[in-house]
Amino acid sequence: MRKSSIMKLPYERFDFSPISQRPKWKLPRGARLAVYTIVNVEEWDIQKPVAREYVTSPAGVVTVPNVPNWAWHEYGMRVGIWRLMESLAKRKLRASVAINGRVCEGPGEPVARAMRDAGWEFVGHGYAQAALHTVPDQRATIQQTFEVLHKYTGKPPRGWLGPGLQETLDTLDYLAEAGFKYVFDWPMDEQPVMMRTAAGPIVAIPYSFELSDLPMMVVHHHESSAWLARVKDQFDRLYAEGAKQPRVMVMSIHPYITGVPHRIKYFEAACDYIRKQKGVWFTTSGEIYDWFVSNAG
Questions:
Q1: Is the residue at 138 inside a domain?
Q2: Does residue 81 contact residue 259 with C-beta atoms inside 8 Å?
Q3: Element (H, E) at 123
Q4: Nearest-CA neighbor of 176 among 154, 207, 148, 198?
């Protein structure tokens, strides 16, 4: 089989690097740990199978329209996101928002406007909520997302979180070509990783499936309190290890999951627990990227 001239396989894009053998990474003010929150804001098309189900259809049949599950997501836009924003504002914290480009153009635009006004960082999350494997032209979709967010916020977006974190082996080249500078789709490390593309470098920002409310609450069906316990356990270990080698920790949440009345207190408790500790940089993904590239070498 003839090898493509475009770098595609993982070890053509980045070098293997055991964390125990790296020079010590330094964070601002000598922090042990950088912590950021990413909120996933999406627009689901009721005329297509919904992105995910909380209540399964009878007999496992795929139903279109899927009214209850579409409405579950709509609750997040009408109610849940505002609860999350209030919690973060009360604590003087900003978040990164992984947002479908369509949100900025459709009925959910007031949500995008409120996050823009709050100074949240906009991260590309596809134009519509669909894995890049399924779109007719992923290169065009990535470019469209970049342009919509650039026009809406007045500044070019830098981060990308693919719907479902899904990519093809060409995606990184298209992202860098469009102008994106960092991605969350490669949850392979606890420090940023510089990766190579056909259009220049792009950075993998640390991400965790296991601190995301979607797999924990919806896929694995944990009790709501389990998320807080896991966040604390994750934080405690990273904080201890960060004394020798600083790390990055993420909390990934969705308005229709964490923004409900019976879960919001666990998110607030997690934020309050982390903020009490010394040597923690509570920040955004973009600020982590800026620090990393400014101090690379």
A1: no
A2: yes
A3: strand 121-124
A4: 198
Over residues 80-123, the pLDDT tens digits come to: 999 999 999 999 999 999 999 999 999 999 999 999 999 999 99
Q: Tokens in use for 256?
A: 């229709």
- State yes or no: pLDDT of 3 exceeds 70: no
Please give the Cα distance from 281 to 285 (Å, whole number). 11
- The angle, 0 to 180 degrees and rounded to 10, between the axes of the packed helices 109-117 and 81-90 is 10
CATH of the domain at 54: 3.20.20.370
The domain in which residue 124 lies consists of: 26-131+208-294
Specify if 136 maps to a domain. Answer: no
Residue 287 lies in a domain: yes
The verdict on residue 67 lying in a domain is yes
Of 49, 81, 84, 86, nearest to 64 by C-alpha is 49
Report the domain count for the chain.
Answer: 1
Give the distance from CA 297 to its chain's centroid.
Answer: 26
Q: How do residues 117-169 score in pLDDT, each as one tens digit?
A: 999 999 999 999 988 999 999 999 999 999 999 999 999 999 999 999 999 99
Task: Indicate the pTM of the whole model.
Answer: 0.94
